[in-house]
Design goal:
3 helices; about 210 residues; alpha+beta; 4-stranded antiparallel sheet; single chain
């Protein structure tokens, strides 16, 4: 497995859902230099502050009040190195859910990170929890809500790109040639994705059996 020959940081946003469920979604950034631990810590704090500043009002409205975004966790990679060598973390404040139209805990909006270069290796994907928002009569996300959520993430991504020690948000291929490319567009559609791997981790609140007489 090859890895890009540039300095990279993977930014993870972690949070909690109903019943102690946890979620993680993230993206890559290229940094102009290899960051010191102090610089990495500062970047984590800055990203967390941007999340609070963005408010994410619509993003919060699609998860319930017992859910929220908790922490930013950064992993620093040296040029060409396949393993992270530094980690930094900062708490997110104020991004707690307000939604009350409950959906399955596997429900998520998929945001595609596009680079303008064809091929699966040049596209990224983020899963945004969509566990407490109503759907339309077509069982899909309303276009107004979809546009509002995507606008919030656009604002946040633009602000991340403007931070000190960030060159740009990237899609990174950790296989093949280890290619990386700059994200220039966010794309999402009205379909709710189901993260089936979450089903096995979900706490069952009740189980019912009925006997059939032969």
């Amino acid at each position: 497995m090859s890895f890009p020959s540039t300095h990279l940081v993977h930014i993870n946003l972690t949070g909690h859902l109903t019943g102690g469920e946890q979620f993680v979604t993230g993206f890559w950034v290229v940094t102009p230099t290899y960051l010191s631990q102090t610089e990495l810590n500062s970047l984590a704090t800055s990203v967390a502050a941007l999340i609070t500043a963005t408010t994410f009002a619509t993003t919060r409205s699609v998860i319930s009040s017992d859910s929220g975004y908790d922490k930013v966790r950064l992993y620093q990679y040296e040029a060409g190195a396949p393993k992270a060598v530094k980690v930094a973390e900062a708490s997110i404040t104020g991004v707690i859910g307000t939604g009350t139209s409950y959906q399955s805990l596997q429900s998520a909006l998929v945001i595609s990170l596009r680079t303008g270069i064809p091929g699966a290796r040049n596209r990224g994907r983020m899963y945004i929890p969509w566990t407490a928002a109503g759907l339309g009569t077509d069982h899909q996300i309303g276009s107004t809500s979809l546009d509002a959520v995507l606008a919030e993430w656009q604002t946040f991504f633009n602000a991340v790109n403007a931070l000190t020690n960030v060159d740009s948000i990237q899609v990174v291929s950790r296989t093949g040639s280890g290619a990386f490319a700059t994200v220039i567009q966010l794309v999402a559609d009205t379909r709710v994705d189901v993260q089936r791997r979450r089903a096995n981790k979900q706490t069952i609140t009740a189980r019912v059996n009925r006997t059939i007489t032969p």
